[in-house]
């Protein structure tokens, strides 16, 4: 990996820099959308002050929680891009295929590790 200077910051260059840059733009758009959604929603109200029926109920809370989880995943992916370890599986450290990263840029596991986890979960369910 070589180092690239952009403005006042120096980054390690990813071997597939162009592909990573296009995924970075997609992640930044997703991040901006999630932050705008959160800003429109406003500051959270105490539960006792606003009845659940007026807050939109459980479905609204679940959507907000999912948006929060997605935002954390996006932030983590952007951080890994800066550290030049984006696209590496967090379990086995092998490359995550770019076809998977294009579908889900915040992916942290390769296909083999996902399959392994699913097998463990299905074995535990029996």
Explain this structure to me?
This protein has helices spanning 17-41, 52-55, 57-82, 98-103, 111-125, and strands at residues 3-6, 9-12. The protein is mostly helical. It has a single domain (3-46, 55-125), classed as DksA, coiled-coil domain (Four Helix Bundle (Hemerythrin (Met), subunit A), Up-down Bundle), CATH 1.20.120.910. It has a two-stranded antiparallel ribbon with strand order 1-2. Helix 1 runs antiparallel to helix 3.
Q: Examine the secondary-structure arrangement and name the CATH architecture.
A: Up-down Bundle
* Rg (C-alpha, Å): 19 Å
Fold-level CATH name: Four Helix Bundle (Hemerythrin (Met), subunit A)
Q: Would you list the SSEs in sequence order as H and E?
A: EEHHHHH
Structural class: mainly alpha
Please, how many helices?
Answer: 5
Mean pLDDT across all amino acids: 76
How would you sum up the global shape? flat
Query: How large is the share of residues in beta strands?
Result: 5-15%
- Number of E-type strands: 2
How many structural domains?
Answer: 1
Question: Which features would summarize this protein structure in a list?
Answer:
126 residues, mainly alpha, Four Helix Bundle (Hemerythrin (Met), subunit A), two-stranded antiparallel ribbon
């Amino acid at each position: 990996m070589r180092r690239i200077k952009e403005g006042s910051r120096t980054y390690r260059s990813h071997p597939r820099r162009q592909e990573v840059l296009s995924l970075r733009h997609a992640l930044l758009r997703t991040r901006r959308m999630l932050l705008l959604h959160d800003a429109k929603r406003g500051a959270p109200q105490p539960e006792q002050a606003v009845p659940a029926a007026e807050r939109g109920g459980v479905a609204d809370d679940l959507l907000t929680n999912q948006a929060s989880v997605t935002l954390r995943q996006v932030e983590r992916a952007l951080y890994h891009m800066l550290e030049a370890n984006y696209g590496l599986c967090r379990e086995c450290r092998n490359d995550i295929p770019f076809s998977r990263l294009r579908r889900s840029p915040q992916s942290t596991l390769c296909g083999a590790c996902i399959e392994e986890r699913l097998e463990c979960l299905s074995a535990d369910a029996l």
